[in-house]
């Protein structure tokens, strides 16, 4: 396709800790494995499985019989401070997180679990995390109310981008399969139109923070493509600032999207139910249907991006992806 202005960056959000709050930034450096310090750190359950592997903790995890007990991780609000990083609990009780602490104490971790606190067996690829200072473990354990480690994607952490949708050499930190998650505000507005109808509440709203995207795009005028809801799914390659980004596939969504990221409240109307109305996508690689929102993105070079940068559409997906409702089913 001809290079055209798609929209502009209206928000950049880094999530230094997997599943914790985001930090809005005006400018960031893009690396091949992600932007800034995005998903450089994570929380891991102190209780390992039978093989001694620790599961990473996310807002979707259950614990002690309580569904999504760890939704409260949303109340951990990181912030950058004088070139460093702090953890806070809803803006209070700050504790410093050294960015260069790469201890020799290593922990094997995995991503594949939903119920570690209930003793559920879990399995998946194992990666090596760098354990952080015990004072951070104590801080997060006391605030969350469950035993957790703080870990870092340090020198021993080797993990690569999902290559089922392209031959990408990019490494990963603690992201879900791909380094980036861009989406448009038009798509958020469209999802909320459906949600308000389903909830029969004119004020019902799913905040864009619930989708945990880190590059938010909007149109400057109605004639730009970013004004069209879900148009990000039609694009394969975009340029913003100094960076080109491939967007090879939609992002499948999990129960975290139903967590209000401001107060950790779990909404009664689940976001997955809303997306299930018309955002079902057949993943032909796995022959499975997923509810999708936003794109998975892969940076193709390093450089700077900033809020206000124009976003250019460089190439479209072909064939075009098909979304729908209940009629979208796996191929028999």
The overall pLDDT average reads 93
Described by strand count, sense and barrel closure, the largest sheet is: 10 strands, mixed
Shape: globular
Number of strands: 21
Q: What ranges have pLDDT less than 50 throughout 5 or more consecutive residues?
A: 113-123
- CATH architecture level-2 label of the largest domain: Beta Barrel
| CATH domain class name of the largest domain | Mainly Beta
* Rg, alpha carbons: 19 Å
Could you tell me how far the N terminus lies from the C terminus, measured between alpha carbons in angstroms? 34 Å
How large a portion of the residues is in β-strands, by DSSP E? 25-35%
Q: Count the DSSP helices.
A: 3
Structural class: mainly beta
CATH-assigned fold name of the largest domain: M1 Pyruvate Kinase, Domain 3
- Domain count: 2
Fraction of residues in H or I helices? under 10%
Question: How does this model look, in words?
Answer:
- This protein is mainly beta.
- The chain folds into two domains: 4-37 and 167-324, PK beta-barrel domain-like (M1 Pyruvate Kinase, Domain 3); 41-152, no CATH class.
- Helix content is 9%, strand content 33%.
- The two termini are 34 Å apart.
Secondary structure elements and pairings:
Blueprint: E1 4-14, E2 23-25, E3 27-31, E4 34-35, E5 41-45, E6 54-55, E7 79-81, E8 84-89, E9 92-97, E10 106-110, E11 126-131, H1 134-144, E12 148-152, E13 182-184, H2 185-199, E14 215-218, E15 235-240, E16 243-252, H3 271-275, E17 280-283, E18 288-299, E19 303-306, E20 310-316, E21 323-324
Parallel strand pairs: 6-10, 13-14
Antiparallel strand pairs: 1-2, 1-14, 1-20, 3-4, 3-19, 5-12, 7-8, 8-9, 10-11, 11-12, 15-16, 15-20, 16-18, 17-18, 17-21
